[in-house]
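seq as requested:
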Amino acid sequence: MIKQNEPVKIKRSQISLAGYNPRKITPEAKRKLKENLTKMGLMGGLVWNERTGNLVSGHQRISLLDADNKYDPKTKENDYDVFVTKVNLDEKEEKAQNIFFNNQSAMGFFDEDKLHEIMVDIQFTEMSGFSKKNQISMFADSSLTDEEYAKIAEQVENTTKSLKKMHQDTTNEVDANYIVLVFKNRGDKATLIDNLGITLDNGRFANAHEFLEELYNSYAENAE
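struct tokens:
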């Protein structure tokens, strides 16, 4: 039977941040988290070990709460109430759970078709955590304006130029053993895949040698 740990309200000063916590966050990801917390409020995610006083999960969330409440961890000034899920773990269990809560290999993954349907339903809002740039790379038919499309296209072009220059500096060649195809929509992509019988790895990548074989076979059949 799965145990449900107790949600409790405690003072922020009762919580110590786990110094061993290996989790880091980019400034952009932290910006998204702050924006979501500001608009939607804290919806759980703080796990506190009453035996050690350490926070097991939720370090980024509590850092934003601290800033919002102007809390000083050293002096305990501006102490505030916070809701946490209380657990009772020994040191080894605590560290293992700290890793587990953020372990990508222990998490699920998106069904891309269902994800796309939901994104359409919520009008591709960035509150989903996907930035405009994420959306154009994943869905192609996001709510980007012409100006936003142009800006991303410029960024891609500049990045490509930088990569080519790096390649030139090392090999004096600008070609590489890959190309990138960007379809106008998912339907165009599906049409090519279905017509040529291409097998995609993770829905994104194809073995070019196998692709050419399918292409040659297709030409040969049409020529007969």
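The CA atoms of residues 164 and 170 lie 10 Å apart.
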